Amino acid sequence: MNRKHLSQTKRWVIKIGSSLVTNKGQGLDQQAIQAWSEQISRLQQSGIECILVSSGAVAEGMARLGWNRRPKAVHELQAAAAVGQMGLVQSYESCFRKHNLHTAQILLTHDDLSNRERYLNARTTLKTLLSLNIIPIINENDTVATDEIRFGDNDTLGALVANLVEADTLVILTDQQGLYDRAPELAGAKLVEQAEADDPLLLKMAGPSAGTLGMGGMSTKITAAQRASRSGCSTLIASGTEKNILLRLRDAENIGTLLTPSAEPLAARKQWLAGHLRPKGSVSLDTGATKVLQENGGSLLAVGVTAVNGTFLRGDLISCLDQDGHEIARGLVNYSATESGKIKGLASHQIEQILGYIDEKELIHRDNLVLINKQ
Ligand code: GLU
Q1: pTM confidence score
Q2: What Rg value do the Cα atoms of the chain yield, rounded?
Q3: pLDDT by residue (tens digit) across 277-306?
Q4: Would you say the CB of residue 22 lies under 6 angstroms from ligand 1?
């Protein structure tokens, strides 16, 4: 992966921090939001799907409430965020509307993404929005979670979203030019143009104190890049105040810091799926389905399932067994064991008839499926 590949990328998660979105904490910087929206609409036009992760709700809430000083109490910050979120999404919505793009508000917590069922729900919704050419605008759900308020952690949320939708690029816009090899104010500090996200030296460069200000420092960004790299996603850390920054990054200009994954996307995802979770149950496949999975890399449909074994829920990891009982694949299942039992052997269009609803037409989508001992 190098910068030349950036123009061929397909799906970006763009994270913009509070300090950039708000006029030095005074309220929303409408001009800046306008400029990013315009760039994002051009990225969309050039075939790159964009998801925005934006902070700024607390600062906008404080401005709306006439609070000059940031409150200490977390519940007051949460209240400010609830007020300010209205303004934040209003602003993005009106800017994107000028470019004939709709936006969608999504408020997430880290827990939403570690719970397998909600993970799949969020993923399906986000992918649906992208297929409709809508720009999802994500923030932490500050009413119920306070990670960002406490740790400036929308960087991590950005990375988790990148994992969730298999983005190829995570762009973290910040108020610095990128990662420097030592504290940027020190003489001789050089911008790191490109490195592997997992390089242990990076966290040393970011400095031990980087994350202690209560807002995401450079070290949170490196950790986010490492997390993003697990699903094969590259991270760009760059200055959000540079003119046309997003377009220039896409056009491979040498600005900011590019942190690349060490493994190919598929291999990274395979590692994650195969290594991180223990299967909760299994399904036995007929020869047709075994072939579709092994030879065509297809999704698993209910029609190819002959038996459902164990107890599992939507979102759990399960094994796929061939006719001899050998595990040939594992993946995140879209239906519980009970539901799977009811729909096994049936064509996808019959799912709704039997269950009364349809989540996805596949039992396991190929993006969530990894073959065992193959590839
Ligand atoms: N998610 C919050 C926001 O959008 C938190 C940022 C902060 O702590 O200032 O403003």
Answers
A1: 0.81
A2: 22
A3: 678 999 999 999 999 999 988 999 999 999
A4: no
